[in-house]
Amino acid sequence: MFEQQPEDLRFYVKQLASVAVQKSEPSAWFEVLYTEAKGDTAKIPWAKLAPHPYLQDWLTNHQPFASRQKALVIGCGLGDDAEALAYRGFEVTAFDISPTAIAWCQERFPDSTVSYVVADLLAIPSQWHQAFDKVFECRNIQALPLNVRSSVISSVAAVVAPGGTLLLITRVRDTEAEPDGPPWPLSESELKQFENVGLQQVEKLVFLESELDVKQVRIEYQRHT
Ligand SMILES: C[S@@+](CC[C@H](N)C(=O)[O-])C[C@H]1O[C@@H](n2cnc3c(N)ncnc32)[C@H](O)[C@@H]1O
Q1: Fewest CB within a 10 Å sphere: which of 91, 110, 148, 168?
Q2: CA–centroid distance, residue 65 to ligand 1 (Å)
Q3: Domain residues for 100?
Q4: CATH number of the domain residue 179 falls in
Q5: What confidence tens digit (pLDDT) does each residue in 133-180 have?
Q6: Domain membership flag for residue 137
């Protein structure tokens, strides 16, 4: 999130997020940002218009079995990661809390097989409970403040089917102290919560982006049958 963004956009996002957090509506500012962008992707700090490179790398190196496998993309933004999974053969549902983001995905990919829906990660539909073979979570948890972190992690884990996997891409921080977000990178103890809610870590890669002073991880978790 916010990689190499102009200072004024970064400042604007921080302001929007700060007001939303003060009102205890931490997800409310995303719709404002998408609406105000008026179709200009340069105004969406995380929009790369391509799948995340660590997802691409995972798909290339793991060659996952995708036929009739149901995938869920959390906080799908403008849809590039969802499209990459669909291209590999997954039956993809992708959701975001922002109706404007979802409409934007449908406009960008009119022939897509992805089912794009508006939904709230903190109030997921009951039929999604443990329903997905592959869950992709990229840079959404870090975009929400620490006071909702446990609930967010529980919700992300809750949609993983028995035998299914979660692929997580996120920034991490080295201390337990509260960072000045957004983004709010995850701590070691927060990552541990995935295991406390029934998942087991299968693979973890750490990426240091020293020019940005950013540490990211890509972790694959599995829910045992
Ligand atoms: C930092 S962006 C990341 C988007 C995308 N995952 C990526 O990596 O490009 C966070 C996304 O999460 C969405 N979001 C925020 N709160 C949410 C919630 N409670 N439920 C679902 N989506 C949410 C936002 O609208 C936004 O598209």
Answers
A1: 110
A2: 26
A3: 45-222
A4: 3.40.50.150
A5: 999 999 999 999 999 999 999 999 999 999 999 999 999 999 999 999
A6: yes
